[in-house]
Design a protein that fits this description.
seven-stranded mixed beta sheet; single chain
Length: 334
């Protein structure tokens, strides 16, 4: 999934740096927490390395993705659900609110793909309500639906706006592609909470933090995926069909609140090692991060230049540089 802040291109840098700092040779039984989990790339990488992973994200679509990638382990046999890709489309919530043929005025998916998404989503909920599907199977299929439908979205990457005309990739006929099932510890756990609440309830060896860097709220940029994930028929408003999301707005997206929210996490974190991913254009200056982390133990810093995420043409206009610098701040907590 093309995701704001994705660590896909930086995963080798993160893995190698964390392993050098921590120096753990046997990862079994060691707890790795990824508390701004997003699409799960970091948590699933460390799950494969043998860690017991705790993942968390306040967005429900992220929770679903991680429920599969982090909690599910092989084998999961879903051959009995192969018929799902052959379901005829229906005019459900997605078609009625995000497709132009319904008269909604929104153009996030073609009519055909919107109806297909509805039919699969409704079938999964029916199976769950009737007790015909295990939790592992449900989250496997729902996470795969979220990951798949995103490839057919008629947007410039995020769901803050839709395109007027259907782009080429969005014209293709939707097909549900299954996500991988990642082997690892069966004791991994995923949460859907505010990090400042969760940090008081968990403990472990390594804490990895990848908070939002700027004022862009994920709840606004991925609101369509949130609705597909919850399928709760929310009241929508505005041209883009936003859902009410005040409880999901992150304090890390505001210059006024980010510093206090960050220090609260660091102070209350019961972990030996804390790593923070942040870039050189974030709301918190590097000096502020260093000052806070240094107050709680031994601090060090690692950097990596990488290609900028560009969500749309406006983003391209606002930033001249093609690359930015990722900072990996490290704290060995005393």
């Amino acid at each position: 999934m093309n995701y704001i802040g994705s660590k896909y291109s930086l995963i080798d840098f993160l893995k190698e740096t964390i392993e050098v700092v921590v120096g753990i040779e046997n990862n079994k039984g060691k707890i790795f927490a990824d508390l701004f989990a997003g699409t799960g790339i970091v948590g699933s990488t460390f799950k494969e390395l043998g860690y017991t992973v705790i993942a968390n994200d306040i967005q429900h679509y992220s929770y679903v993705l991680n429920r599969h990638l982090i909690e599910n382990t092989p084998p999961i046999n879903i051959e009995k659900f192969n018929y799902i890709n052959d379901l005829p489309g229906v005019e459900g919530f997605i078609y009625n609110n995000y497709c132009s043929g319904s008269g909604s005025g929104r153009n996030y998916f073609t009519d055909e793909n919107g109806k297909k998404c509805d039919s699969i989503r409704l079938e999964l909920e029916k199976l769950r309500l009737n007790g015909e599907i295990l939790d592992s199977e449900y989250y496997y299929l729902l996470s795969s639906l979220l990951n798949s439908i995103d490839k057919y979205a008629n947007t410039a990457s995020v769901y803050g706006a839709f395109l007027k005309h259907i782009k080429q990739s969005a014209q293709k006929t939707f097909k549900l592609d299954l996500l991988p099932i990642i082997p690892g510890d069966k004791n991994c756990k995923v949460y859907n909470e505010n990090i400042n609440d969760l940090i008081n309830k968990i403990e472990g060896h390594i804490l990895y933090l990848d908070p939002p860097y700027n004022a862009r709220q994920y709840c606004s940029n991925y609101h369509v995926l949130e609705t597909i994930s919850l399928y709760d028929n929310p009241e929508l408003f505005g041209v883009t069909g936003l859902r009410e999301s005040s409880k999901q707005k992150s304090e890390f997206c505001s210059k006024r609140t980010v510093t206090n929210a960050f220090e609260d996490v660091i102070k209350n974190a019961n972990f030996n090692y804390i790593f923070l991913s942040y870039n050189n254009e974030g709301l918190m200056p590097i000096e502020v991060i260093e000052k806070i982390m240094s107050s709680y133990g031994r601090y060090s810093l690692f950097t990596k230049e990488y290609k900028r995420f560009r969500a749309d043409k406006e983003e391209n206009r606002n930033h001249k540089a093609d690359s930015t610098i990722e900072y990996l701040h490290c704290l060995i907590k005393r």
